[in-house]
Each structure stands twice: as structure tokens, then as C-alpha cells.
Specification:
Layout lengths: L5 E2 L16 E5 L2 E3 L1 H7 L9 E11 L2 E11 L8 E3 L2 E3 L19 E2 L5 E3 L3 E3 L3 E2 L1 H9 L3 E2 L6 E2 L4 E4 L2 E4 L17 E3 L2 E3 L1 H7 L15 E4 L2 E4 L17 E4 L2 E4 H7 L14 E4 L2 E4 L18 E4 L2 E4 H6 L2 H8 L2
Antiparallel strand pairs: 1-2, 2-3, 4-5, 6-7, 8-11, 9-10, 12-13, 14-15, 16-17, 18-19, 20-21, 22-23, 24-25
């Protein structure tokens, strides 16, 4: 886009209309500029050694206000070699790692803290420019960068939302519209302050406290912290073992057998649907003919033999005298 500076004939600057005769000028897109206007409009300026002023509209970011626009006031224009990093220009001698001061003109560069923001009075918060070793050290130390404003997040101040680490003050509570902090929570992919979250999230049936991000279990039509789900009689933990539900309470199998009937075939507690016959009880799946072991239903016709059920097919195969003896009972 730029041409080398050269001597031109009688002409005027396209910006300030100053006569350009016999002076040193610059040509951009077939238009001529004096040296001052060329630097103001087109010359690359080093972001490290230049100074800025702010103007235009302020924007609110969290609890602070920021200037939306910026411009250089004391510029260090770059003549000669220019290094471009993203949208910024640098002198080769100014492009150093902010931590170890290693020159980065021929190495990989990481912009660790994002955009430039300008505060009132005139001051500048520069991005962190890091070498690969310093970037690795900061990552191991737990340093994080906000996905919204691209600024550094202090340890313990980050809020995880939609798989990103951000400052909490970028969001408002979905319910009360208060500004959030690092203690905010997410429920059904919506952010809430800790107070509103406690009102909306499930509550443990044992300790009556909100179930946050802990592991939990749903049993007996209620929510429980994993460590609070225990036998109602002996308080044995039930989260990794079989339990029996009776009268809206959970019991381990050992306690259940003490006050309920056991299945005649498998020995488990009879608390759900079961069959009671001949002063014995069977689970629905265990109720079968004691001769052929064919599964029976509560509506199946059965005969009694030694206080055990016999299906009609097996009964028909019995000798006549045995049938008469069974019928005479």
C-alpha cells in the first residue's frame, strides 16, 4: 500500500493541503502526504514505548468504567523493521517477555491477558506477552484468563460458565439480576447467585442443605448427599449396596429381614409385590411350581403339597390315591 518516500513536483498534502514542493513526502494509494500526516494516519507505532490518551464513550465492565477508544499522543513511530503481533506493531527491541525479558522477535509469542483497556486518568494496562517457558509456568501456577474481557483472573476468583473461565461480574443472576461473583452457581445452564441457587436446587433429605456440585443420589422419591443416604435403622451407608424401601424409608437387607417376611425361595425381603400362600411368601419372580419349577402367577390354579404350590399339570400326573388324599385334607 505504501510507496517509498520520494521527491515530487508541486503538489499539496491530501490531509492538510500543505505545499509539498521540494520537500520529502509519502505516497499512499496514489495520494501524497506530508511527513507529519503520514505518521499520524499510516505509520506503524510501537505499543510498548508509545503513550496513549483516551476519548469517546465509556463502557461499564463489572464495577469499573473503561474508555472504548484510544489514540497515541507521544508516539514512537517505527522506522525500519516492524514486528506485527495480532493487530499491534512493535520495535524488535521492545518485544520482550514480560517476565524473563527474553527477546521474542524470532520465537513463539503468547498474549496471556488479552485486550488493551484504558482507564481514567490516562494509564494503560498492557497485555502480557510471554515466552513459551513463562506461559507454561503460569499455567502450572493456576493462572487463568477471562474468556470475556481477556484479562487475568486472580486465583480463586474465577467462575466456570459454559466451559469457560470468566470474571463473575460479567454476568447477572437469572432470578434477582444481582451482579455475580466467584461464588455463583449454574443450574440448567443458567447462572444464579449463591442465595438464589440455594432456593432452587434440590435439598438433601437428611441434612436439609442444598445439594451443590456434590455427588448425590435420588432414592425413596427424595434427593440425598451420597454420604447421607443410610439405612434408617442401623445407619449403614447404602449408596453402593442394595437397599429395601418400606414406608418411605430405606433399609439395608440385614435390617429388613428382622421385621419383614423373607422370600421362601431366594430369602430376600418381601416389601414390594409378592405372593403369600400356605403361610409362606414368594417374590413375584420366585413364585413357581415346587415340582416342575414352572413360573406361576397370582391367578394360576395351584394345589398344596407339603405347604408348597403344585401347578395343575403336575397335579394331573399324580396317582389317583395321592390325589384323593390331597383333596381330603
Amino acid at each position: 500500500m505504501f510507496s517509498v518516500f520520494r521527491q515530487v513536483g508541486i503538489s499539496r498534502c491530501a490531509q492538510c493541503f500543505e505545499l509539498l514542493a521540494e520537500n520529502l513526502h509519502y505516497e499512499v494509494n496514489k495520494r501524497y502526504y506530508c511527513e507529519y500526516d503520514f505518521k499520524q494516519l499510516y505509520a506503524p507505532t510501537c505499543v510498548r514505548c508509545g503513550m496513549f490518551e483516551t476519548f469517546g464513550k465509556k463502557i461499564k465492565l463489572g464495577a469499573n468504567f473503561y474508555w472504548k477508544r484510544k489514540r497515541f499522543i507521544h508516539c514512537k513511530y517505527i522506522t525500519g523493521r516492524v514486528i506485527k503481533v495480532s493487530i499491534d506493531s512493535w520495535h524488535p527491541e521492545c518485544l520482550l517477555c514480560d517476565l524473563c525479558q527474553t527477546p521474542l522477535d524470532s520465537k513463539g509469542i503468547w498474549r496471556y491477558a488479552g485486550r488493551l483497556y484504558f482507564f481514567e486518568p490516562i494509564s494503560l494496562q498492557l497485555v502480557w506477552v510471554l515466552c513459551s517457558n513463562c506461559k507454561k509456568q503460569m499455567k502450572e501456577a493456576g493462572e487463568k484468563m477471562c474468556a470475556r474481557c481477556k484479562l487475568r483472573i486472580e486465583p480463586g476468583k474465577s467462575f466456570r460458565y459454559q466451559h469457560e473461565d470468566i470474571h463473575g461480574y460479567h454476568l447477572n443472576c437469572t432470578k434477582c439480576q444481582e451482579e455475580l461473583d466467584e461464588n455463583a452457581r449454574v443450574l440448567e445452564n443458567k447462572p444464579y447467585c449463591s442465595k438464589c441457587y440455594d432456593q432452587l436446587c434440590p435439598t438433601c433429605a437428611a441434612c436439609k442443605r442444598p445439594i451443590d456440585n456434590e455427588r448425590s443420589v435420588i432414592a425413596v422419591r427424595r434427593h440425598w448427599h451420597l454420604e447421607h443416604f443410610r439405612c434408617a435403622k442401623c445407619e449403614r451407608p447404602l449408596h453402593s449396596s442394595k437397599y429395601i424401601e418400606k414406608k418411605d424409608k430405606a433399609y439395608c437387607e440385614d435390617c429388613c429381614i428382622k421385621f419383614t417376611d423373607a422370600c421362601y425361595k431366594c430369602g430376600s425381603c418381601l416389601v414390594k409385590q409378592h405372593v403369600t400362600l400356605f403361610k409362606k411368601g414368594w417374590c413375584t419372580g420366585c413364585y413357581s411350581c415346587s415340582a416342575c419349577d414352572r413360573t406361576l402367577t397370582p391367578k394360576s390354579k395351584v394345589f398344596e403339597l407339603d405347604m408348597r404350590p403344585i401347578c395343575k399339570k403336575c397335579y394331573d400326573r399324580f396317582p389317583k390315591n395321592l390325589k384323593e388324599r390331597l383333596m381330603s385334607r
